[in-house]
Design goal:
By secondary structure, the chain is α+β, with helices and mostly antiparallel strands. About 45% of the residues lie in helices and about 10% in strands. Strand 2 and strand 3 form a beta hairpin. The structure holds protoporphyrin IX containing FE.
């Protein structure tokens, strides 16, 4: 569980985040601008090789600064997790008989809960299949919490909340910043065209983030984040 959760999920979510950004160019631009701004303000300019300098410099930036300076990346990650984690959580009753509502759960019985009941519920998230990170702006999230209570299981909840959330978020942030600051990234679909729609997840594994149902690839070119032009 620990291995699935940490190794495969963190890398998988990072890839999906890039896919969602590619298919939503306005958000990609917002995240790219935020990353440019963060790196230009926090990292010292390259002397020899811009990419290396960004890596070394980011390592010196306090984690709290990285978190504070990349709020758009944060809401994009939340929205990616909402759409992506459309699967079942499982529990086993290791104690005495208990009731969930009127349903009797015998000792030793398994219970499954489908996250889609929350994540794709149109009463909680209007137009649930639409990628809209603004759902995670503080006011909207607070309002949802007041109205619906627990409505997101991207990091689990209650006694079994993800213990690696902080580490995973940090890794995803660092990778996104490193990749997008030092490279111009384009995600291509199976035909080699720029990705315009996020493919469905294969959803063929329990407890882990799955691969896309279609092949995608990443095209990348070196860029200098300190150069003035937005395209370089
Ligand atoms: C983006 C990456 C990750 C996502 C989306 C994620 C998501 C989750 C979710 C939804 C749960 C609750 C599962 C349930 O209730 O059945 C969970 C639990 C857990 N996660 Fe993560 N996780 C991630 C990364 C990590 C990392 C990096 C680690 C370790 C360093 C980790 C360690 C764990 C552990 C040990 C549990 C079980 C906690 C318990 O049962 O009390 N996860 N994770």
């Amino acid at each position: 569980m620990m291995l699935f959760a940490s190794v495969t999920n963190t890398g998988g979510v990072t890839c999906w985040l890039l896919l969602y950004l590619e298919a939503n160019p306005a958000w990609k631009t917002r995240v790219q601008d935020e990353i440019n701004q963060f790196v230009r303000s926090q990292c010292s300019q390259a002397v020899h090789f811009p990419g290396d300098c960004v890596g070394v410099s980011i390592a010196e930036v306090p984690i709290t600064t990285l978190e504070q300076e990349t709020p758009t990346l944060d809401i994009v990650l939340q929205e990616t997790l909402r759409l992506l984690l459309d699967g079942a959580f499982m529990r086993r009753n290791m104690g005495d008989e208990l009731f969930v509502g009127k349903t009797r759960v015998k000792p030793g019985a398994f219970l499954m809960y489908h996250t889609g009941d929350l994540h794709l519920n149109p009463d909680i998230y209007p137009e649930p299949h639409r990628f809209d990170p603004e759902r995670w702006l503080p006011e909207a999230a607070e309002q949802r919490q007041l109205q619906h209570g627990l409505s997101f299981l991207g990091w689990g909840a209650a006694r079994h909340v993800c213990v690696g959330k902080k580490a995973a978020t940090l890794m995803i942030r660092m990778i996104a910043v490193m990749v997008m600051a030092t490279h111009k990234v384009t995600i291509l679909d199976a035909s080699g065209n720029r990705l315009s729609e996020v493919p469905r997840s294969k959803n063929d594994r329990l407890f882990k983030v799955c691969r896309p149902s279609e092949n995608v690839s990443m095209k990348y070119e070196r860029r200098n984040v300190f150069a003035n032009s937005t395209n370089t």
